[in-house]
Amino acid sequence: MALTYDQISAITQKKFIPKLYDNIFNSNPLLQRAKKKWYTKVDGGTVIIVPLNYATTSSSGWYSGAETLQTTDNDVITGAEYTWKQLYANISINRLDELKNSGDSQILSLVKNKVQIAEKTMDDKLATGLYSASTDAKSIVGLGTIVGTANTVGGISQTTYTWWAAQLDSTTTTTTIAEMQRTYNLCTVNNGYLDDPHLVQRLLRATAAPTALRGLRDGKGRVL
After folding, report:
1. Helix H or strand E segment including 156
2. 77 Cβ contact partners less than 8 Å away, ≥ 6 residues apart
């Protein structure tokens, strides 16, 4: 029976690089942008309602002198309804592994790194959900559903209420600055805030179909 260690391996430690290198997770610029710019924390409520201004005031116009003004009221506000979604990542560590990964023998913390990996896993799944077509009822409503003209988003039909549909160009076959500018302008709302797009995403697909230029808004009605 051969000995397990020779004269070098028996008295020389292995050299570990004190850093855990990521070789599995993909970049998710849309999620990072969403975290910094759009996402807000909410608490409580059976569902989440986003108030929407969907019409202009019908009783308005020019008048002269003491002319009788129209006072008929009309609905101008509605709400998009979203249900709560839950996402988790499990962290399991047994006591023996925790003891082994302690003291001077610990190069990297098992607990700390498993927590970080779990957080990255959730970010990764959330980023995937952002692009999804909402085929999983448990997942968030993704851009595959939001950026459309015939879907139901937040309980509102894009077909019935075209103001809720995305600005979608499915005929342009060559992406040019002019076409991008046209879609950008369609997505810009000069409502006193000059609500204009501030994110451009190009999705590469293995398909012969024309590339679509898509203008989109987030769940608060703001332009993405």
Report:
1. strand 156-157
2. 51, 52, 53, 54
* Domain ranges for the chain: 30-55+74-215
Spatial separation of the C-alpha atoms in residues 57 and 73, rounded to whole Å: 8
pLDDT digits (tens, 9 = 90+) for 171-186: 888 878 888 888 888 8
Taking the C-alpha atoms of residue 49 and residue 28, their distance in angstroms, rounded to an integer, is: 27
- Give the per-residue pLDDT at 209: 40
Q: Which H or E run includes 37?
A: helix 29-37
Residue type, 119: E
pLDDT digits (tens, 9 = 90+) for 54-101: 999 999 999 999 999 999 999 999 999 999 999 999 999 999 999 999
Q: Is the pLDDT of residue 221 over 70?
A: no
Buried residues in 147-170 as b, exposed as e (16+ CB within 10 A): bbeebbbbebebeeeeebbbbbbe
User: H-type helices in 38-194, by residue range?
Assistant: 95-100, 110-131, 143-146, 177-187
What pTM, to 2 d.p., does this model score?
Answer: 0.76
141-142-143-145 Cα dihedral, nearest 10 degrees? -50
Sign of the C-alpha dihedral computed for residues 45, 82, 156 and 38 taken in this order: positive
Residue 193: predicted pLDDT: 63
Whole-number Å distance between alpha carbons of 119 and 70: 57
Token pair, residue 205, equals 């697909």
